[in-house]
Amino acid sequence: MKTGLQRQEENMKFLKSVPLLKSLPSEKLSKLADVLDLDFYHEGDYIIREGSTGDAFFIINQGEVKVTQKISGFEEPQEVRKLKRGDYFGEKALLSEDRRTANVIALAPGVECLTLDRNSFNALIGNLNELKEKDYGDVARGAQRSSTGTPTDG
Ligand code: CMP
């Protein structure tokens, strides 16, 4: 079994390799490594549901996810992207305190995510310009904003 210290060191090493976090000083990275949780999702699990509220931010540590979204003219949500190790998601609802803008679904053989709650997100990385300026082109693609939804992710 791994000790807390080993886990912290592994998290640090991985965080240093995440492109989003490259401008963070090691002091902040170390705080981040302290507060991150590790969660596992099985193939097909909805990590995030479009239209729900949510309080977590995710960085993929292992595996891949598929992002799907309601697009006008289509009955079923459409796949807009796949994300892999080192990619992140779930920042939109935290930055705007609004609803989730897409579904995020775990692909085989499962996904391991480092997760951050809203408070830690705000304190440690919510100010990064890359997050604030991120534009997925949702409007141009005809993505529909849901005004109603299930109460929380899951
Ligand atoms: P959030 O809206 O909180 O929850 C769904 C997440 O999916 C969203 O944050 C983004 O991180 C991500 N997302 C939304 N649209 C796209 C897209 N077009 N491509 C990749 N990721 C997206």
Q: How many angstroms does the end-to-end distance come to?
A: 28 Å
Mean pLDDT: 90
* CATH structural class of the domain at 37-134: Mainly Beta
H/E element sequence: HHEEEEEEHEEHHH
Give a quick account of the main beta sheet: strands, pairing sense, barrel closure. Answer: 4 strands, antiparallel
Structural class: alpha+beta
Count up the helices.
6
Residue runs with pLDDT of under 50 for 5 or more positions: none
Beta percentage is 25-35%
Structure, briefly:
The protein is an alpha+beta fold. It has helices at 4-17, 26-35, 91-96, 118-124, 129-133, 138-141, and strands at residues 37-41, 46-48, 56-62, 65-69, 78-83, 88-89, 103-106, 111-117.
Question: Tags for this entry?
Answer:
8 strands, 30% helix, alpha+beta, 154 residues, 6 helices, single chain, binds adenosine-3',5'-cyclic-monophosphate, Jelly Rolls
Structure description:
It is a single chain. This protein is an alpha+beta fold. The protein has a domain at 37-134: Sandwich (Jelly Rolls). It is built from six helices and eight strands. The chain has helices at residues 4-17, 26-35, 91-96, 118-124, 129-133, 138-141; strands at 37-41, 46-48, 56-62, 65-69, 78-83, 88-89, 103-106, 111-117. Helix 1 (4-17) packs across helix 2.
